[in-house]
Design brief:
single chain; 1 helix; little secondary structure
Length: 107
């Protein structure tokens, strides 16, 4: 197992119980009586004339920018990252350099 990997070992029965819903009839919990005298406090509006201030204002803008020429280049990276004094083809040199890095406290 890698140091950056953690596997959870938990059985399905330990995750919790399933919800158990029952079918019940609808109940009226409260009722508000209609009051016709309160109707004078409100002004009837059609939806066409309604103005909403909570809608985000959006705008569109475009700019003609200068084109930049790009190119793709391919690199074959077989072995790299070694200092110039270490020959990457020699296994003994690379092993010696790795041991020196492991002993280094700043590594």
């Amino acid at each position: 197992m890698n140091e950056y990997e953690y596997i959870y070992m938990k059985k399905r029965r330990d995750f919790g119980r399933y919800c158990n819903f029952d079918s019940v009839d609808a109940k009226i919990l409260g009722q508000i009586e209609r009051q016709p005298q309160c109707g004078d406090m409100f002004v009837e509006q059609t939806i066409i004339n309604a103005v909403f201030h909570n809608i985000v204002t959006m705008s569109e803008h475009s700019v003609n920018t200068a084109r930049v020429r790009t190119s793709s280049r391919v690199m074959n990276h077989v072995e790299g990252g070694w200092p110039k004094e270490v020959d990457s083809t020699e296994a003994q040199d690379t092993l010696k350099y790795r041991k020196r890095l492991e002993k280094d406290p700043q590594f």
